[in-house]
Amino acid sequence: MRIQDMFERDIDRDINGVVKVAQEDEAAVEQELSEYVVTRELSRHFASFFDSYEHALDTPTDKVGVWISGFFGSGKSHFLKMLSYLLTNKVVAGKPAIEYFDGKFEDPMVDAKARRCASVPTESILFNVDNKAVGVKDTGVLKRTFARVFYDHLGFYGEDLKLARLERFVDDKGLTQEFRTAFEQINGEPWVDARAEYDFFSDDLIDALEQAGVMSADEAERWLEDPNGSDISIETLTDQIRDYANAQAEAHGGDFRCCSWSMRSASSSAATRTSCSTSRQSWRSSAPSARAASGSW
């Protein structure tokens, strides 16, 4: 027998050396889930996390974040992605994410709590805060970045907050399909394909907005000329996220969570942050030195 035959998996398979936020193809996600090893230390972190998260399912709280910090290569991003997969419990290669963890948790209580948390309808917004930053790095950059990833999640063009806010306005009026149809008839290109360069064919945009009944031509022109159209207050953004969570909760029988998972680019010492918006409760942790769940929740 050759040494390579002693391994459960093919040692010549492709293995991702670095966990990447944007890597979402099913084969990569399936490999990450199936090959993730829950060590004794990780088991303690999972236990602490799910203890607090499960508690928040039953007890209202305004503490809505978890902080994970540690040196480069300590496994922060990998741990965070696993939490994201488990809480959303998306089906990967025909199997719910939580089922990939069968036998990974030695403590049956941790397994039971993880399964309960995974049973709550949840959406995740996972992103690298440096790659998604909008505009100059001033005091408002985080607000704009979170607005961008939220709008992207909804299918709007978050890279341009002015345009994303217009798309949300159209959608709130229930006229998205009418607007897109009108634009394609006028311009010849689908709106989603052409929207990044909308300022080069503003006449088509104005005509489509008017034809779809979104606003008058004069109103559309004023919107185009408004230099402050991309401004959004933190209060407005949080209200929109809350309204979205409430609407999704109603659609899912009363409970829903939308979790954002942000991480920094690789550095000698980096951190990740997670927060959840819910229609009912939330949770929080402060965790130093790459510990995923310690401190006060």
Descriptive overview:
With 297 residues, the chain is an alpha/beta fold. Helices cover 44% and strands 13% of the residues. The chain has eleven helices and seven strands. It has helices at residues 26-35, 40-58, 76-88, 108-118, 141-153, 161-172, 176-187, 191-194, 202-211, 217-225, 234-251; strands spanning 65-71, 91-92, 95-96, 122-128, 257-263, 269-278, 285-287. The chain has a five-stranded mixed sheet, with helices on both faces. A two-stranded antiparallel sheet has the order 2-3. Strand 5 and strand 6 (269-278) form a beta hairpin. Helix 2 (40-58) crosses helix 4, helix 5 packs across helix 6 (161-172) and helix 9 (202-211) packs across helix 10. The longest helix is centred in the first third of the chain and has 19 residues, at 40-58. It is elongated, with a radius of gyration of 22 Å. The termini are far apart. Residues 266-271 and 280-297 have low confidence and may be disordered.
